[in-house]
Structure formats: C-alpha cells, structure tokens
Amino acid sequence: MTAAASPPVPAPAAVAFSESASAQDRYAANLGNLAEAIRMAQDAGRDERAAKLRAMAAPPQSPGRFLSFDGRGRGRAVEVFGDLASAERVAVLIPGSDTTLDTYQRFREGALSLHERLRAEQPRSVVVAWLGYDTPETVGTTVLTSTRAEEAAAELEPFLSRLRSLATPGVHISLLCHSYGSVVCARTATGPEVSDVVLYGSPGTGVPSADRLPTGARVWAGRGSGDWIGNVPHVRFAGVGFGTDPVDPAFGARPFAAGAARHSYYLKPGTRSLDSLARIVLGPPTTTPSTPASNPARSVPSALGPEAPHA
C-alpha cells in the first residue's frame, strides 16, 4: 500500500487556464502536456514513470479527459469519466495517502468501476478522479496531521466552483472521500451544489461531529469489516490524530452498509460498498441547508441497510 517516494522526474509545468476555458479546451491542452511529460521522462531514462504516464493516456478513455495534469514530482491529475456537459449527477473521488502518478491506475480503476455502476442506472452520470493535491505517505508524519488536508481544501473549494460552471445547470455533486481524503473533505467548505459528503475508510476527520463540518450537505460514513483502519486509535492530541470515529453514532453521520470491504477496495465491482456508494450518488437530491450548523445528519437511520460491522 505504500508507494516509495519518487525522485525528481522532468516534466513540463502544468498548463494555466483562464476561468472561462471550456472543458474541451482543458482536455486538449492537458493531453498535450501529458504527451510532453511522457517524452521528457523517456528521454531522461525514467522508463517506469514514462510507462505509468502512457497508461494514463491509453484506453479505456482515449483521448483522455483531464481537467488538469501536472507531471512534476509525485504528480497531480484530475480526470473526468463521462460527459460533464450533460451530467445530472457527478461523483468526485478524493483519494487518500500514497496516491500519486505512480499509483494512479489503482485510483483510476476505482473511478471506472463507480462510473460503470452509476451509468447502469443513470446514463447521465459522471465521475471525477480528483488527485488535486500532494497526498501524504502512509509511512511518515504528514499522514497524522491535517497540514496536507488544509492545503488540499484550498485547491478543492475553487475546483468545485469551476466544476459547477462546466456542468449542467442544477447538477448535484457528491464528494466521496476515502481514508485521508476524508480529512480533506472535513476542511472543504461546500455550496448547495454538493448534496452529499461521504466518508469511508476514514481515520477520523479532526472534528468531533458531522454538524461541525463546513457543509450543508448530507454526511455519510461507512467502514467495511475487512478495513484495517478500524484498528487505528481515534484520538487527537496536540494536532496529531483525527479524533472521533466517523462511524461512531456520536459523530452523527448517516451510516451506510460497506459489507466486507478492505481498505483499498471499496469501489471493487460487485461489492456491497460500491453498491451503497452508488445509491448515495444516485439518490434523490435534498434541499441543502444554508448553514453547516443545520446539517441534518445526526441520528438519522440509514436507508441503505444496516451499518457494516467494524473491523
């Protein structure tokens, strides 16, 4: 599960866009940037990175749809699966630790799995794989603090605003926040276009309850019985650790059934966890409150079956 830190890899700077740039313009420019990153990595003898980048440019999506791409260092990428211009439901996946360009295929496979599941019921569904921040390493100190999450939230908040402008008017967006990604979502203020925030495989969020999150969306939490993170102590001291377990009823999130999911396999095809996450994204929209304090999550029973047993 732990990716080794990548030594510096030559790559072009990320493409800068105006706020008015269309999704199609972004896709085309970022594909060009990706192709140049492949060439530079290959010329530098970085064959492994070049191979990883070629896989990103290959089917099942060809040409790829990247709203952003940066091949420098551990790398960043934001990839779209589906047609934003006609989307009614958009699920934005926020990854956890050790998600980099070198481990991107695992993240992408989860996005593709969710997209296929959503489209089986709602063809106008889109999944966005948002690797828009420098994720911490599992073995290290940064994964125990909120520093990277705060930096990520500063990127995710404006991205959600841009996403709304690129998609169908009235689109409903769900944030699906895995592992350390749940710490990111806990620091991301959302507007009324975000109908659901889902925390899964979470080590905690750093806040004591769902109604303290900066969102008016419904807040969900689930954990598979095979997820090792259930054994992590839910404490917080001197800024280290993330406190209350989101699946604890005291946190006040809506529970969802995650079956026997292991930590990195919530989006595996055919699983209870994938089905539950899809049902949340596809479920009827709610009129979201205007203030985070009125979050309706506390003490609301799940409509998705019993909460999965804890690991």
Kindly list the characteristics that best describe this protein.
disordered N terminus; disordered C terminus; two-stranded antiparallel ribbon; 311 residues; eight-stranded mixed beta sheet
Description:
By secondary structure, the protein is α/β, with parallel strands linked by helices. 27% of the residues lie in helices and 16% in strands. It is built from six helices and ten strands. It has helices at residues 23-43, 47-57, 104-119, 147-166, 181-185, 272-282, and strands at 66-70, 76-81, 89-94, 125-131, 172-178, 194-200, 218-222, 236-237, 240-241, 254-255. It has an eight-stranded mixed beta sheet with strand order 1-2-4-3-5-6-7-10. A hairpin with a 2-residue loop joins strand 8 (236-237) and strand 9 (240-241). Helix 1 (23-43) runs antiparallel to helix 2. The two termini are 18 Å apart.
